[in-house]
Amino acid sequence: MPSRDPHPTDPHPTDPHPTDPVISVTGLRRQYRAGVQAFEAVRGVDLHVRRGELFALLGTNGAGKTSLLEVVEGLAPATAGEVRVLGLNPYRRRADVRPRIGIMLQEAGFPADLTTLETARMWHGTLGEARSAQESIAVVGLAGREDVPVASLSGGERRRLDLALAVMGRPEVLFLDEPTTGLDPQSRRAAWDLVRGLLADGVTIVLTTHYLEEAAELADRIAILHEGRVARTGTLAEIVASEPASIRYRTSTAALADLDLLSGLPALAGWPRSTGGAVELESVDLQVTLSAVLVRAQDAGAELTDLDASPASLERAFLAVAAETLP
Ligand SMILES: Nc1ncnc2c1ncn2[C@@H]1O[C@H](COP(=O)(O)OP(=O)(O)OP(=O)(O)O)[C@@H](O)[C@H]1O
To answer: What pLDDT, on a 0 to 100 scale, did the predictor assign at position 111?
Structure first.
């Protein structure tokens, strides 16, 4: 099916309202191949990214993040649905949209024998209005490494060079595709500081990452993609609030081990389970359930070993999504 564009002329492309979403995706579908071999990688996605926010796109392997982002970045057409970036169809109006966005890909693939500065200058030559090569290198903290061949940069320095090129054109919207993969914890935190600096300058950022901590640290809002659909979306707090907390322990005392007896505990999110000899409880109110467990243990003189009580987390939400099979 060809992509459809209900507003092919984009009547007010240069005068969007300040509160309009910078990225607006509605009912997006992307299908690979046709006929019996057809595979729909993106199955009706709605997303809206506001000006100046960092929106993190998470997902299981093969969830459709890359397939979705390629359409948003204007690199591929949608099979169906509507995408607007800065008010424009990014595929049909690529020449207008491209200078206003920056894309940091997973593997930029520079000629390894060029130096940092030569690489930045080469990229500068492809842009119109842009920061100088020197300034871009300084922005990402690579000053002093100008004359080092790209092949001799560390993995972290190479990712910073990727970022220098992505921000060189002073993009209004920046796409960061797994920007800190392979970086050590210190370099990752340095990259986060760079990203925060860009946000402070008003850049709108779409981040994909497999590091949930990174999304929790940086994102204003998050979407978790699964099997081509948005399975969860919202702020970190909103996503976490939709998941139960958990309590685990081991005991030999029946009052705390018998699952039927435990099912009467308050605020449980489901039936108690026993896994590998440990009791597992899910709770919609950790404090209420945990207090009841401890009171019962005291009354029964029970010893609880390996006691662990954890509030819901982004990781739990992610794992819950990964375990779901969507209709
Ligand atoms: N060119 C293609 N032709 C056919 N199928 C494809 C093509 N590209 C991707 N797919 C399939 O579409 C689905 C989504 O892939 P995609 O790369 O978008 O996922 P992803 O979320 O980016 O995954 P990852 O986190 O592993 O990079 C996968 O099942 C993949 O095999």
So the answer is: 83
Mean pLDDT estimate for the chain: 91
Provide the token pair at 213. Answer: 């901590």
Report which of 156, 3, 23 is spatially closest to residue 85, judged by C-alpha positions.
Answer: 23
Residue holding tokens 């910073």?
Answer: 160
Under CATH, which number does the domain 244-311 receive?
3.30.70
- pLDDT 10s digits, 116-138: 999 999 999 988 889 999 999 99
Nearest to 206 by CA among 137, 105, 78, 110: 105
Q: Which CATH number fits domain 51-73+93-239: 3.20.20.100, 3.40.50.300, 3.50.20.10, 3.20.20.70?
A: 3.40.50.300
Compute, in angstroms, the gap from residue 41 CA to the centroid of ligand 1.
7
One-letter amino acid for residue 166 of the chain = A
**What are the sequence ranges of the domains in the chain?**
51-73+93-239, 244-311
Out of 27-31, 80-84, 164-168, 185-189, least confident range: 185-189
Residue ID of nearest Cα to ligand 1 atom 5 = 32
ipTM computed for the complex: 0.97
Question: Looking at ligand 1, which atom is closest to the CA of residue 69?
Answer: 18
Q: How far apart are CA 253 and CA 240, in angstroms?
A: 32
Tell me which residue has its CA closest to atom 29 in ligand 1. Answer: 62
Beta strands in the chain (DSSP E): 23-32, 39-49, 54-59, 80-85, 101-104, 173-177, 204-208, 221-226, 229-234, 245-250, 273-275, 278-283, 305-310
Name which residue sits closest to atom 25 of ligand 1, judged by CA. 61
Residue 16, pLDDT > 70, answer: no
